[in-house]
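Structure representation:
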Amino acid sequence: MQLRKLFYQAGRAAAGLLVVVFAMTGAAKLADQIVTWLTFAVWQPFTIADALRFWGIPVPQAPQLLGLAQLTDAVLSWPGIPAYLVLAGACLFMFARIDRELGRLSRKSAGAHPQRPFDVIAGTSAVRRTTEVARK
């Protein structure tokens, strides 16, 4: 159980760092493009291929089979800043899921009862708990 908890903690830290890296890189590149545009009145396109080159990742070469090369070229020509933000959002989602599971593991190891799921109808669980407490 302890090894699983350490794995989740490491995953949460990695996901959190990736959120910061992708969000800050996207924001910095957007700021760079805005300053360039305001200074020179020229908008420099920044594609996913440019983002891969920025990180030192070679652009993938797809085989000509079934149009995969055209598909790869099309995806690599998409704007890079929204791609950074999508990656940051995906890492934030992973962070939240890992944090939720880590909290569940912590409650389980502490011997606390698992949280009761809310009833389908909104507000009925709170009303039911209040009524149960009032009866006692």
